[in-house]
Amino acid sequence: MIAMPPTPFHFSPSTFEPIHETPAIIGNSPGGSGSADDAYAYGGRMAMAEDERRRRRMVSNRESARRSRMRKQRQLTELWAQVVHLRGTNRRLLDDLNRAMRGCSDMCCENAQLEKEKAELSTKLERLMQAQNATTPSSSSEPRDDNSTE
């Protein structure tokens, strides 16, 4: 049997070790050499840059979500304060309305009482005038002044 050479992408466990280099070390490789190590390092930098962008975006999104939650909480607090204020205003307005309605009712009762007294006094005056006319001779030659008081 003829031994087949390993495929170019086949790595034995003894020859393959993951690269754990920092970006500064990767950046020290000579530029323009076009070797497989350079391509791997470039791909690693791309992946690291993509991971960094993803991490920054995730942090930015978390911060944005936190600000949004805080804004909503502040709006909710302001709305509850407005509810409390409006309920208090509503209660005061209802109290004012009830007081005005009681005052109107009291005035109506007082007005009715005054109308009743007016009617009684008018009746009494009418009787007094009739009694005075009955006792006074109607053939009196002196003209009578209704506006004078005795």
TrEMBL record:
The keyword Nucleotide-binding does not apply. Residues 130-141 have a biased composition (Polar residues). Residues 51-102 form the BZIP domain. The keyword Ribosomal protein does not apply. Its main location: nucleus. One of its GO terms (cellular component) is nucleus. Keywords: DNA-binding, Nucleus, Transcription, Transcription regulation. Signal peptide: none annotated. Residues 1-36, 52-74, 128-150 are annotated as: Disordered. It is found in: Nucleus. GO terms for molecular function: DNA binding; DNA-binding transcription factor activity. SUPFAM superfamilies: Leucine zipper domain. InterPro entries: AtbZIP8/43 (IPR044521), bZIP (IPR004827), bZIP_plant_GBF1 (IPR045314), bZIP_sf (IPR046347). PANTHER family: BASIC LEUCINE ZIPPER 43-RELATED, BASIC LEUCINE-ZIPPER 58. This is BZIP domain-containing protein. The lineage of its organism: Eukaryota, Viridiplantae, Streptophyta, Embryophyta, Tracheophyta.
